[in-house]
């Protein structure tokens, strides 16, 4: 990942829009999640959520732990090297004062199985830093047919792409 690669979180100009169009230009990593990974405070709960998704993609273990609320922060490794992430879609985000909720869908493949994670994450702002607190998540296994659009988001048929 270089600062001018498209950011894995898929953010385009105009943060906060819940619909990502494939036509709109994806922000560069250096203008999107990288500054947060280097220590800049996230401007919103959604920006923090995107940077955490991005950190899972890039395996930034220390950032994931640091951006986790101390009350709920796990001890051990949180990245799983066998998981590959294919895209993030923010469905809603709201903030009230020091707390925020972001609902999203993310597609990933682990141990040869395609899955979608749907989660509403709760964030708390503490000392000017948003941190992930907890979330309600559910997972759905995908079983793409050969002629279905590939779950990786390439726009190709599954059989011609990742099958
Ligand atoms: Zn980003
Ligand atoms: Zn594919």
TrEMBL record:
Transmembrane segments: none annotated. InterPro entries: NTF2-like_dom_sf, SEC_C_motif, YchJ-like_M. It comes from the Bacteria. Pfam families: SEC-C, YchJ_M-like. Residues 44-135 form the YchJ-like middle NTF2-like domain. This is YchJ family metal-binding protein.
